[in-house]
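Ligand: manganese (II) ion. Inputs:
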Amino acid sequence: MKYEPVIGLEVHVELVTESKMFCGCPVVDSVEAEPNIAVCPVCSAMPGALPVANERAVEYGILVGLALSCTIEPISIFARKNYFYPDMPKAYQISQFEDPLATNGELLIQTDEGEKVIRVLRAHLEEDAGKLTHIEDASLVDLNRAGVPLLEIVSQPDMHSAAEARTYAENLRDILRYLGVNSGDMEKGVIRFEANTSVRPVGTEKLGIRTEVKNLNSFRAMEDAINYEIARQSKILDEGGKVDQVTMGWDESKGKTYTMRGKEDSHDYRYFPEPDLPPLKVDDAWRERVRAELPELPHAKFKRFLAEYNLSEYDAKVLVSQREIAKYFEKTVKKKANPKAVVNWMTGELFALMNRAEIDITEIKVSPTALAELVNLVSEGKINKNTAKEVLGEVFEHGKSPKAIVEEKGLAQVSDSDLISELVSSVINAHQDEATSYREGKTGVANWLFGQVMRQARGRANPQILREELIRQLEE
Ligand code: ZN
Ligand code: MN
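Predicted complex:
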């Protein structure tokens, strides 16, 4: 590699408050809701309407700031960012500019070279714009989203590959979900990325000229756009050219970035303090009240799961990715079930059932107690794995106790070696040819015979005892 990429991310996060940032309109689902059902004089910019800051949105901002180890500024200032576009009838966005709510934080990410600190420059509050739908000869305006609270989180240019940027973004999404401030529904555009990318010759310090790719709505799009920019800019430098500082878009279908407009500076927005809102004051008492709401965060939980339950890094990562999944796991383990077995049943059969039913872990009928019971029935040899799958499916449908199902349906595993021995010899008697070819060296036949005995046992024989007995009799 001749060039080192330098990447910074700006992340816009929709906060899941009841009402909008500066008015009492409800926050509605911007994809499902009828257009323009949540609009009032404030968010449609009627003359004389005055904004009032949403207290809960401020608290969510503080919460995220604290989770990212930021300084929560005692005074921050709302400012007008002027721009002219039909999705924002005020012709400005209320944002924070020189004095943001949270500054100087960091996020720890796991990379191939170990842990790495990505510095967070700032996090500030602002409002979202409306939505335009372009039809043949007109554009339709939907203001449901105009004024929805946004938190913009800006990193330092501390990432050096698209993969690192993706890891940072995924970790950030996990944290936001843990805090309950964002739904994490990426396909609804509730988290949007802007990637600033430049390249410089390896070993040099001076930053290259960067481009900014806006409106990246998925991890995939973000990663692809960054990789595309790294390759494009490296080629320009190779050919002795100069990268233009531009604002770009990402064409998903072509897999290419394209220039939207030229170099953009903050003075283009004519920022000035919002005269209709007082400075936002966060005193120590308020900040500490919010701090008390902080849950154990994904990274800390990850470390604890590794140490406490002796899990693989992969398993621990899957479990901590969502707070509810981690909680379910711990509740199950507390019912005296083996942690490793619990992870396997969760990430295997249970997640598959959830995917098929399109529900999440908070909606399932399998209680942690039931899963623990199931895991223990298997580990105690009372049922085998195949029966356990059948039982789990039943619990998933009807929410009954695994023990009750096993009893009701007579599914208990047959471990009685006399009985298994009888079944084995009757199968061998009925299939003399196969037994002979086994003895002549075609040992693969044993699997087929195993299946025959298991069928006789209606799937309930202890597989280990069965196999041992089968081999013993074949080799007699
Ligand atoms: Zn409104
Ligand atoms: Mn912004």
